[in-house]
Amino acid sequence: MSLQLEMLGTGNAFAKNYYNNNALLFDDQFSLLIDCGVTAPIALHNQGKTFDDIDAVLITHIHADHVGGLEELAFKMKYLHHRKMILYIADDLVETLWENTLKGGCYQAGEITSLNDIFDVRPLQPLKPHYISEHITVELIPTKHIPEKSSYSLYLNENIFYSSDMVFDPALLSHLINTRGCKTIFHECQFQGSGVVHTTLQELLSLPLEIQQYIYLMHYGDDKDRYIDQIGDMTFLEQNLIYEL
Ligand SMILES: Nc1ccn([C@@H]2O[C@@H]3COP(=O)(O)O[C@H]3[C@H]2O)c(=O)n1
Ligand SMILES: [Zn+2]
Ligand SMILES: [Zn+2]
Question: What is the largest CA-CA distance in the chain?
Fold first, then answer.
C-alpha cells in the first residue's frame, strides 16, 4: 500500500462543520496522526478507529485545535490500551506542552509527573529530516504564526509541504518548489480579514498559477462553499477523502 493521507478534519479553530485540521498519514504498516485537536477523538470514532490504531502523533504547535485531544489520547492509551503513544514534537515545545497544556489534567502524584509518564516522547530538532517509518520522513520548518510562539510546518518525504497555522510566506513556498522539489502543498487558509496570524485566500491567490496548482487548501471556515469558484488554480482538501501521496 502506498502512503495515504486522510484528513480527520479540515476546519479552522472555530469551524463546526469540518472538525479540527488534523490528519492521518498512513500505509499498511504505520499510522501517524498529525495534530490532535479537541475534535480528534470524535473524528476518529466516526471513522471506526481508536487511538490504538495509531502508531505515533506529531504536534505542529500548541493551540487547542491541534493539541486539545491529547489528554483523552494519553489517558486512553494508559488505562485502556496499556501503552504509551510515540509523541513527535519540536524540542522547544516539549516543556510547554507538559507545563502549560497537559499537566493540569494529567498530573497524578507518584504516577504521572512528567510528559514521559504518558508519552514516548521523541523531541525533534527542526530543519533536519527525521525518519518516522519506512515510508515517512519529516522535517520541521519553523513558520510564523503567533509572535514569540513556536509553530512548525512539515516537509514530508522531501516533496510534500504541510503547513502549520502560519502567516503567508511566499518566499518559502517558491524556495520549496524551485530548489527542493516540492510537488504538493497542503496549506492553511483564512477566507476573511487580514492575515495577522493566518494566511488569507487573497494572499494565496496572489501566487503565480504555477504555484497555485500545487496547493490544497485546509484549515478553512464553515462558509467554504461560498468560495468554491473563487480559489484560482487551487483545490480544497476534503475531510475523510483518502489521498494517495
Ligand atoms: N492573535 C490571535 C490569536 C488567536 N486568534 C484566533 O484564535 C485561534 C486559535 O487557533 P488557530 O487555529 O491558531 O486560529 C486562531 C484564530 O482564529 C486570532 O484570531 N488572533
Ligand atoms: Zn489551528
Ligand atoms: Zn494555531
Answer: 57
Give whole-number Cα distances, 52 to 32, 42, 77, 137, 219, in Å: 12, 14, 7, 22, 26
Cell numbers given for 211: 504555484
Residue type, 232: G
What is the pTM assigned to this prediction?
Answer: 0.98
Question: Who contacts 230 (Cβ-Cβ below 8 Å, separation ≥6)?
Answer: 201
The SS3 of residue 120 is strand
Name which of 164, 160, 171 is nearest 219 in CA terms: 164
Q: How far is the CA of 81 from the centre of ligand 1 (A)?
A: 34
Residue 124 contacts residue 90 (beta carbons within 8 Å):
yes
ipTM (interface predicted TM): 0.99
Cell numbers describing residue 108: 497524578
| Ligand 1 atom closest to Cα of residue 145 | 13
- Candidate of 197, 219, 220, 222 to mutate for ligand 1, largest count of ligand atoms within 8 Å of Cβ: 197
* Burial class of residue 197 (count of CB atoms within 10 Å of its CB; 0-12, 13-18, 19+): middle
CA 185 vs CA 37, 149, 173: distances in Å: 21, 23, 8
H or E element at residue 173: helix 170-180
pLDDT under 50: residue ranges of the chain: none
Which domains are present in the chain? Answer: 4-244 (3.60.15.10)
Helix (H, G, I), strand (E, B) or coil at 170: helix
Rounded-to-integer distance, Cα 95 and Cα 140, Å: 17
CB 90 within 8 A of CB 123: yes
Can you give the pLDDT at residue 1? 77
